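U., I forgot to send this yesterday:
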Amino acid sequence: MKELNAMALFRLSVLGPLVSRDHLERGELQQIVRELARREYAIPGSRRRYLGEKTIQAWYYAWMKQGIAGLTPKVRVDRGISKLPAEVQDALVAAKRANPKRSIRQLKHLLESAGVVARGTLSRSAIHRLLQQQGLSRISGSASEAVEHRRFVAELANAIWYGDVMHGPTLTLQGKRCKVYLVSLMDDASRLITHSAFCLGETALDIEGVLKQAVLKRGLPRKLVVDNGPAYRAVTLQGICARLDIRLIYCRPYAPESKGKLERWHRTFRDHFLSELDVSRIADLDDLNARLWAWVEQVYHQRPHGGLNDKTPLERYQQDLPNLRLLGQKAAQLDAIFYHRVKRKVRKDGTVAYQGQDFEVPYELSGKTVNLVVDPHAETVVGIEDAEGTHLGLATPLDAIANTHRRRHQPNPEGFALRVQSLPTGTPNAIELAYRQYHDQPEREEP
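Result:
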C-alpha cells in the first residue's frame, strides 16, 4: 500500500472541523476557516506557526474535488529544467567551471558585461536553476563546505546547559488575551530541565529570571549554549555569566541543530503538555507555571529516556551529584550578582527616578551621575554606586509630605556675620570702593 504524503496528512488534520461535517450552513465555512487560522500549528518543514485563511480555504476546495490526492503537494513538471537559450546556458556553465567561486551575482554581471545577455533580462532564479541542474550550485571553498554534525553528549551533568524560548499559546489571563513564551534551560548530559517558566515576554530579564532559579536548584553549569537573539546578547546576561564563571556560547545563526536536544524537548512539550492543557482552569500566569512545574517534576523527569539507556532524566542527573559545581560562597551574593546597574543623574533636590517612582539619595550627590543598583525582578532600588562600583549610600522612596517636617542642613548665618565683621582693619571693601569711584569722592584716611 502506498504511503500517504506527510504534508497531505497534516493538511487533512487542519481541515478536520470542516471535512468531518456532512453539511455546512450558509456563512459557516468562512466562520470555521477564520477560527482555524487563529490556531497555532506545528507545520512540517517550517518554523511558521500560523496559516492564512486563503490557504486553508484552498486546501478545503482541493479536498472536495480530489480528496487526499488534492492535498498532496504538486511537483512542477519543469522542475530543474532551464528555459534559458542554449548559448546563455553554455556561457554560464563555462564561466562557473572556469572559476567555481563565482557567485550568481558575479555570473550575471559577467554575462551582461560581455554582451551575452541584455542588462536586466537574466534573473537570479534562472541562473540558480541551471547551476543546480548541472550540479554547480554550491560555491567551492571552505565557506560553502557542509558543516559536519556528529551526535555527542556531555560526560557529566552541568557541563553544558542549553537555553531557548518557545512561543506558547495565547491565553486569557485575568480578563486579557496574552501571548505567553516558554523560557527553558536543559542539561545536556541528563536531559533534565534545570528550570522552565512561562513568561509574558522573551526579554533578557525573563531569561535571567529563569537562569537564577536554575542555579539555585541545580548548581552552576560550565557552559551555557544560547542562540544569537538580542535578549541573549544583553550586557546584563553576559555580566551575570561572567560573575558566575559560566561560559556563554552563541550558536551559529539559523542552526537549530546546535540545540537539537532542547528542540526535541519543545516537541515533547507541545505533544504532551500543551495538547492536554485545559486553558479554562488557568486564572493567571502563576497558575499556568504551577501546572508546568508539576508536570516537569512528576512526569517528564520521572519518565525513562531512550537516549539515557532508559534512565530517567532525574536518575541520570543524580548520578553526577558528587561532581556538580555548586554555588558555594556565591550563594550569599546571588541576589547582588543578578542586580542591574542603571545610570541616572541626581536632581537638584537630591532625587532620582526609576520605573516612574522618585527616590531620595544623599543630598551631596546632587548634580552628579550615579549608578542605581536595582533588583529588576522586584523593581526596587537597592542602593547607589559610582562608576567604579563603590557604594555611595541608600536610595529610599520619596515621601514629600514627611519632608515638610524634616530639618534641613543650612549654613550658619551668625557664623557668616562674624566672619564678615572680623575682617582686619583696613581691608578693602568692594562696595565702598565702588561707591567712592562712582561719586568721585576721595578715600577718607583712617585717623
